[in-house]
Amino acid sequence: MSDKPDLSEVERFDRSKLKKTITEEKNTLPSKENIQQEKEMVKRS
């Protein structure tokens, strides 16, 4: 076995066949109001 990786498939890879994807951010940060509500709930517990 060789220590070098086999790059033959990478060299033949065609980027033009890839589809364009649209990334949507799903993990939004909480608002100040939400943070304050959480703090109040923790204090009550």
From TrEMBL:
Keywords: Actin-binding, Cytoplasm, Cytoskeleton
Protein name: Thymosin beta
Keyword match Cytoplasm: yes
Highest classification ranks of the organism: Eukaryota, Metazoa, Chordata, Craniata, Vertebrata
Species name: Rattus norvegicus
GO cellular component: filamentous actin
Function: Plays an important role in the organization of the cytoskeleton. Binds to and sequesters actin monomers (G actin) and therefore inhibits actin polymerization.
Gene Ontology BP term (one): actin filament organization
Pfam families registered for this protein in UniProt: Thymosin
Family according to the record: Belongs to the thymosin beta family.
Predominant subcellular localization, coarse grouping: cytoplasm
